[in-house]
């Protein structure tokens, strides 16, 4: 998949925040919002650690039980506003101080979802291209590939993220592409191995002794820096 985002995606309906490396970049969102059908709602995402006007901010959402994300809009002060055709008449992205905002009008029951704000990284023809679908049997091993271009591969860490159908994102682990050091979430230690090949700007995720519960979509995501 092509990725133009830093790994700063935060659940709107969960009080949480992501600390981004040494720069302490934070995107903090409110907890659950409840509104009536036909009314409007203003979603907010407060940032710190960088100038909000230096990057586009996108809004995406995930309906309950959905395995995919739906992009709504992207906004940056002084630049063209981009809004999905499906939402052109109902959503308005904006910023106020250091806060990104998304107003949704004429709410319907179908708007019930988890909403995410995501800071764009600077566009420079960066690409992260992953292998297509893999079909394996329990007990086998699979090696997923993420080939990159458009930047210095060894200067940025690489994350792998798992999304089981109907569930949210789960961070698998990270590799420092300069040193090769890896860090894994406790639930993925043992059978999951992240490696890299700097000569071809490629990161790998190998999963051994496959289990049915490993069935998922796996994403690679470039980290803000090596750490």
UniProtKB/TrEMBL annotation:
<keyword id="KW-0391">Immunity</keyword>
<dbReference type="GO" id="GO:0005576">
    <property type="term" value="C:extracellular region"/>
</dbReference>
<dbReference type="GO" id="GO:0002250">
    <property type="term" value="P:adaptive immune response"/>
</dbReference>
<keyword id="KW-0393">Immunoglobulin domain</keyword>
<keyword id="KW-1280">Immunoglobulin</keyword>
<dbReference type="GO" id="GO:0019814">
    <property type="term" value="C:immunoglobulin complex"/>
</dbReference>
<keyword id="KW-1003">Cell membrane</keyword>
<protein>
    <recommendedName>
        <fullName>Ig-like domain-containing protein</fullName>
    </recommendedName>
</protein>
<dbReference type="InterPro" id="IPR007110">
    <property type="entry name" value="Ig-like_dom"/>
</dbReference>
<keyword id="KW-0964">Secreted</keyword>
<dbReference type="InterPro" id="IPR036179">
    <property type="entry name" value="Ig-like_dom_sf"/>
</dbReference>
<dbReference type="InterPro" id="IPR003598">
    <property type="entry name" value="Ig_sub2"/>
</dbReference>
<keyword id="KW-1015">Disulfide bond</keyword>
<dbReference type="InterPro" id="IPR050199">
    <property type="entry name" value="IgHV"/>
</dbReference>
<feature type="signal peptide">
    <location>
        <begin position="1"/>
        <end position="22"/>
    </location>
</feature>
<keyword id="KW-0472">Membrane</keyword>
<feature type="domain" description="Ig-like">
    <location>
        <begin position="23"/>
        <end position="117"/>
    </location>
</feature>
<dbReference type="Pfam" id="PF07686">
    <property type="entry name" value="V-set"/>
</dbReference>
<keyword id="KW-0732">Signal</keyword>
<keyword id="KW-1064">Adaptive immunity</keyword>
<dbReference type="InterPro" id="IPR013106">
    <property type="entry name" value="Ig_V-set"/>
</dbReference>
<dbReference type="InterPro" id="IPR003599">
    <property type="entry name" value="Ig_sub"/>
</dbReference>
<dbReference type="InterPro" id="IPR013783">
    <property type="entry name" value="Ig-like_fold"/>
</dbReference>
<dbReference type="GO" id="GO:0005886">
    <property type="term" value="C:plasma membrane"/>
</dbReference>
<feature type="domain" description="Ig-like">
    <location>
        <begin position="124"/>
        <end position="227"/>
    </location>
</feature>
